[in-house]
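Before a computer can learn anything about folding, someone has to put a protein's shape into writing. The outcome of that step, for a single protein, is printed below:
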Amino acid sequence: MLFTTPVEKTKVNIRTMSQNEDEELYFAYGSNLDAERMKKRKAYFTKREAAKLTGFRFEFSKRMKLPGVGVGNIVPSPQSMVHGILYTLEKGGLNKLDVFENTSEGQYKREIVKVQTADGVFEEATTYIATENYYQSGLKPEKWYLAHLLAGEEFLPLHYYKFLKDFETYD
């Protein structure tokens, strides 16, 4: 299932990464929409807010060990938009997330993206994108994984929450 939203034109106020050297900006679109998951991963945050990323679409296309099962990923798609959460992490938070995103094994890689917050401000933030070796289309999430995404409901537009909730699961 693909979800596309027309790209909106809005005011442009760009802030480059965090202006505070003790903070890191991170855009979450997958299981890290769940604040409790972030805390368990010790990626402590001082702020979280709704944000959207234009020019990408969300998919369950990061391959897992179990055949047919995938987790969240984003792929370039000019007319699409991904909704998520912009976290302001304490310094070192991204390094903690790297362990869970398996960057050393080459499963995900860090990318800098420009997201827009609900108040119209554009922010440069780090996100994770599946590497080519772990990309596979046509995958389905497991219910427990999808529940982590749905935990971010308060930060997602209703139509996007329904888009996620309606995904067919593997189990």
In short: The helical segments are 35-40, 93-100, 143-150, 158-165.
